[in-house]
Amino acid sequence: MPASLATVDIVVPVYNEEQILASSIARLVDHLETSFPFEWRIVIANNASTDRTAEIADSLAADDSRIAHLHLDQKGRGRALRAAWQASDADVVAYTDVDLSTGLTGLLPLVAPLISGHSDVAVGSRLSSASVVARGPKRELISRCYNLILRLIFAVRFRDAQCGFKAVRTDVARLLLPAIEDEAWFFDTELLLIAEHNGLRVHEVPVDWIDDPDSRVAITSTALDDLRGVRRMVGRFIRGKANVELGTLQRQPLADDFGRQTVTFGVIGVVSTLISLGIFLALRDEIGAVWANVIGVTATALGNNWANRRWTFRRRSDQDRTWRLASTLVVFALSLLGTSLALAAVSGNRGAELLVLGITWAAAALLRFVFLRRWVYR
């Protein structure tokens, strides 16, 4: 989109914010007028407030045509963002918390990569080494632990899922929003997980951030809800229910990605091998080498297949998913048969068994990589 013609909607979700709404919007308007080169509009998304928030929002909208008031009958930050973003006709939709804890100097770096087309989603990060943050130890600890969980489980690249400072290209948002189920605080995490899962580019901006001591966020209950959301997303990813058809917005892979695929396949293979070997050693004396191998390798088969599909070959569409899974399982079964026959020939000699496992597992992995790359995921 031409930068000179780009438009940005900045959504400010609010619930019972009569004390700070007017002053925060005034600060935001002042910043946009002096330091923001694109055409903009502020949307106050009122989450069923019961105080004078609606009255103040109406007054602000009446005094300035660049301010709009969107009233919702139900609470939930995710619900507010969904409604405001779906109704937007701007090129980029963004949001910031009403307390303006995030420094507004980060707004232009947040939206610029989206307007240029370089990125699809942009997030502010309080956990970047370049960020300047002032907040209490409890919030800091919970935030770091939560984002570490996301990196360990989903291997995400972004550092901070819950900073109230994000932007999305509107054409991308229209495709992602139907796939996002949460209507509350986990909405942010779900947005980022689904975006990255579907190959969209997420741009992260270091921010200046000052903790709001009057924040109404219930830290403990919100953290528990987020963990339940993480569990739900694991299930969706495993079942292939987080895929979004992006059409022309899908970023095309490199013409030859052999180097990255080789390294990723190797890392996944090492992790799977260590798990299988642990199971083999634990069960060998009880049930014999052949059956210990069968159980050990089978235990990692589905996870290995999913990880290679997701990260090595970056396939997210459900198209031909059944055929690909069946083809992979056939290769797995043939590899397992070969390993089992070789183990049966040396059964009883632990050293020989481990040598056979090493050779046959390595050979099977090499053949599986060639097969997956040249035929299944070509």
UniProtKB/TrEMBL annotation:
Topology versus the membrane: Single-pass membrane protein; Multi-pass membrane protein
Gene Ontology cellular component list: membrane
Top-level taxonomic group: Bacteria
GO terms classed as biological process: polysaccharide biosynthetic process; protein N-linked glycosylation
Class of the enzyme per the UniProt entry, highest EC level: transferase
Compartments in which it is found: Endoplasmic reticulum membrane; Membrane
Keyword field: Endoplasmic reticulum, Glycosyltransferase, Membrane, Signal-anchor, Transferase, Transmembrane, Transmembrane helix
Pathway: Protein modification; protein glycosylation
Domain GtrA/DPMS transmembrane, chain residue ranges per copy: 264-376
EC number: 2.4.1.117
Single GO MF descriptor: dolichyl-phosphate beta-glucosyltransferase activity
Keyword Iron set for record: no
SUPFAM superfamilies per record: Nucleotide-diphospho-sugar transferases
Catalytic activities: a di-trans,poly-cis-dolichyl phosphate + UDP-alpha-D-glucose = a di-trans,poly-cis-dolichyl beta-D-glucosyl phosphate + UDP
Domain Glycosyltransferase 2-like, residue spans: 10-173
Membrane spanning stretches: 263-283, 328-348, 354-372
Similarity comment: Belongs to the glycosyltransferase 2 family.
Protein name, as recorded: dolichyl-phosphate beta-glucosyltransferase
Species whose genome carries this gene: Ilumatobacter coccineus (strain NBRC 103263 / KCTC 29153 / YM16-304)
